[in-house]
Specification:
4 helices; 182 residues; eight-stranded mixed beta sheet; alpha+beta; Aminopeptidase
């Protein structure tokens, strides 16, 4: 579960990055990464400052995650060790849902639009196929055009609409249900 896949050599501003599955030791860095992404994007489920997860709580969650065969987190790491992106897959816990995983992706603002999302999804798909997961699903705010575009580029299709699903800045927003069958 600790295998590391090199995605780019010296591509993003001369900085090498790679994708790997998260380690328990990444707990504090991961909490900080998620909080940074939430601060930079209005479309994440939690708003800036709303997340109260501590490094210790995250460490326990990662320890539990390591015990599950159908859930994982992939992270994008700079060559200096700084985490700049993630893709979470939460697999089904019951027999009828073991074939599916719900996804959440986040990439820091400076690294968006540089191909990391596509690479994360590619790595996740390989992982999912090895575990006989045949359905990947997510939700996305309909106005988040860059995310919707990314998901369509990597093969996700819109399956439905959740009307007035979220309230962001005192305004209702719809979300798409999207999925990809492997």
């Amino acid at each position: 579960m600790e295998k590391s896949i090199v995605v780019f050599g010296s591509y993003i501003g001369g900085i090498s990055v790679h994708i790997r599955e998260i380690k328990v030791e990444d707990a504090e860095s991961f909490v900080n990464l998620v909080k940074q992404v939430e601060n930079e994007s209005p479309f994440m489920l939690m708003e800036a400052g709303e997340r109260e997860t501590t490094a210790l709580q995250q460490r326990k969650q990662l320890e539990n995650l390591k015990q599950q065969n159908h859930s994982t987190i992939f992270v994008v790491e700079q060559d200096e060790g700084k985490l700049v992106g993630y893709l979470i897959a939460v697999g089904g816990n019951v027999r009828k849902k073991k074939h599916s995983a719900y996804l959440v992706i986040g990439i820091t603002e400076d690294y968006r639009g540089k191909g990391l999302g596509k690479k994360l999804f590619h790595q996740l798909e390989q992982w999912a196929i090895e575990r006989q997961i045949s359905r990947l699903e997510l939700t996305v705010v309909t106005e988040n055009e860059s995310a919707v575009s990314l998901y369509k580029k990597v093969g996700f299709e819109i399956e439905g609409l959740k009307r007035n699903s979220l309230i962001i800045a005192q305004k209702y927003y719809d979300e798409y249900y999207m999925a990809k069958l492997l």
